[in-house]
Write a structure and sequence with these properties.
single chain; 73 residues
């Protein structure tokens, strides 16, 4: 089943683009996870990296704004 499935898989669509974008979102999420350790504690820390993985750059912008607000306090 494995080889016939690989032979019949069409990668001319958007699968590779989706995989690259998802990988980029995950890399940003991992960075936010480790960086938020300095600014947030508890559940707030985990919310930011999950939002970043789901929304990508939008979540990163939200995190950076909240990080700046938290740093001023």
């Amino acid at each position: 089943m494995g080889w016939s499935l690989a032979r019949n898989t069409d990668f001319s669509g958007h699968q590779i683009e989706i995989a690259v974008i998802l990988s980029f979102f995950i890399i940003i999420g991992v960075w936010v996870y480790y960086d938020s350790d300095k600014y947030f504690v508890g559940i707030k820390r985990h919310i930011f990296w999950l939002v970043t993985i789901i929304t990508g750059p939008i979540g990163l912008i939200i995190y950076l704004v909240q990080r700046k607000k938290e740093g001023l306090v």
